[in-house]
Predict the structure.
Amino acid sequence: MSGSSHARAYLLTGAALLALAGATPAFAQAQADTAAAPAVVADPDPDTGGSQLQDIVVTATKRETNLQKTPISMNVLTATSLVDRHVQSLYDLADGAVPSLRVATFEARQSALTIGIRGIVPLDANQPAREQGVGIYVDGVYLGRQHGLNAALFDIERIEVLKGPQGTLFGRNTEGGALSLVTKGPSGKFDGSATAGIANYGGYNGALRLDLPETYGVSLKLDGVVQYQGPTTKNPLAGQTGFNYFDRRGFKATARIKPVEGMTADFSYDNGYDANSPFYSQLLNYNPNGCVAGTQASQPNCKLPGTNYTSLTGTVKSLIPGTVINGTSRQKVADIGVPQQPSIDKTHGFTSNIRWNVAPEIELRSITAWRGVDSTQWDNSGGAHRVPVLNSSNVVINGQLQNGTLFSRYSLADLHQNQFSQEFQAVGTVGQLDYVAGLYYFNEHVSDDAATPNSNFYNAATGTISIVDPCATITTGFTVVNGLPVGGTTSPAGSQPGCRSIDRASEVWSKSYAGYGQVTWNATDAVHLTVGGRYTRDEKQGVLHFSRNINYDTNTAAATRNGYQPLDRTWKRFNPMATLAFDASDSVHLYAKYATGYRAGGASSRTANYLPFNPEDVKSYEIGMKSDFWEHRARLNLAGYIMDRKNSQVDISSIQPTATGNFNNLVTINAPGITKIRGIEADLTVQPVDHLTLTAGYAYTYTKIPPVLITSTNVYQNFYIVFTPRNAANGAIDYTIPLNDLDLKFHIDGNYAQSTQAFDQFATHNDASFIVNSRVALSNINLGTNQLTISAWVRNLFDKQYIFRRDPSNSLPAAPTTPGATTGNINGVLGDYGNFNAPRTYGLEASVKF
């Protein structure tokens, strides 16, 4: 089917869905709580004698509006739904709480999260000069990095998932949408709660919320949280951390003052600590493509994308003794012990949020924030499951000549980020016009470094494995004379700071300036036209301090030979938006929307020349419906959309000549042509009888990136959008049984996602998934002046095992190191390796409200 045919098909399908619901184009797609977040049940309706689905207030348009009447495609996860799913951090939403929202770890690491909406899912946004495609906001403050996003969640009131480009009101790097976390503020009245729980794998959690009465005009709210889980895969090396472990804690204090009539000022400080370890990376198979020396044509499966090899040379090596191949089940104990210490993420922030109702027609707002994150990454989850493979060769470690192989790539990285943002808003209504206007400024400084030493050594003579000195030196380029190494170059190759060979180190300064406005003309009680636009100027400057252990600051000659140029780029964009909304009735709201967005450009610190790349831009066309029916016992929301993305940022393997010789590198480029993203979404909430709520959600997402010409091989290569299943769905059942003054509540949700790619340059899929979560709670237990709730919860109820990340790079021939190479080498072929999802976790919890 051609691109235009696809476009017509999706629009027609969306229109057909709307017609089935008794409507035609125009007013926000939304779901009062999504399939995983059932709508809150209100008090019984006096006219019907039954209960109705309660309205939910959102702030997606920078003003408080009814979710069902807000012309923005969005889902909402309420505080209740987060508790029912036992969501402690954003990564807990990876099971599919919202079908079109995708959350994944970067590589196997929990220290940085990849978050995508509607097929806008960046693979590698963890470099300082690269940006996310979905904006993450906490109380209106944009978070510049994906590091630290897996911190413990504080007292969340709701999470708003805004789908599609949000380039007008939310701005930079929101081409896929925005994830807006809204926390509960001070009330000025005494209130609070304390929660404590225990879980398997030695887990425990606790939270304290204290809302103090207003004193001398100041209302104070304090929040504290702790979360712990022991490793789910053990590390056999004594004294070393296991895998999929976390230890989180955080504190937040918010003060609210009302200095003058009509003005409210909130000042908050938060501090978070997250120690974690990566998921274990298992060897899933051994030489699955049957690679042997010979012609490429004789073994079509043993082919590296983007190459045109005619022959293959080399030998697939044997595995290190003790290596376990397991592609069917999650390993409880790693096969080979490796050094592994926790990665540490530290986040902190101060926010000032001031609102002043100057007049009935206008409210002025100021949001000021200083934030930062310090991330120290330690990832040794691969062990013997990734290259380098078993080899019998001479190596000099700390001056000693040995015969064997260094292995177990220990990925180490430090990142330090600080940001300042200031936003001014004017929000109000004049006659038939609702308006929002604003000015925005963002200033960010990020630095990072990375090293990849090998932590283990296999002795070919004795068949034993030992641990390498963390401050080891390695000598290369030597000759052996009379059994002794002569000459060569010695360089640091340990894992400890000061003993590392630095692969890369960079520093980036980013500034963003924006002005925006949006006006809604309420032409009649039923017709609403919204138009808006945002002008953005992004400035980015960056330097590459190290590349392949060459210090560019001191060795400028080598930097020049590598073609290095500092980054100094400026981009300007104007992003318009228009929405036509029509209230077909009191319970049916329709919309048609056009919106644009963009993700800023940057430079790849993984390249020797700090290769820059340009922004990517997206245009979105959407129609949708939001409806209430059956006397407000049911809600159905539908949306169909087309998104066209220009200059998609993709990562390719490319040959780069450097001062130390040619090598293959991961390069970020802008893919030519238009990337097509098409989708249909549906959400349903039904309360067939009192106290029973049924919810369901579905998302269909089609994506296609045009083939990219690899200039070094003159071969077209296909690329894919990662972690974006073609079909995703979920459903939930919530039932409450009143027991006199008590409530017995049952919750169960199921979440399905079709298999999808985990790497943008490989067609290889991960596994499809179906995860069920459940909770049973007895609430309103009277403790005098306090109320007690006790509950039992379980995540991944049926202990389903699936591979969420499958990497085929180690099962294919090596990438070429010279342009036009026609012979590939299979000496490094090992097998696919990947990560299984978390096992079943369960626990007991008690919460006291006072």
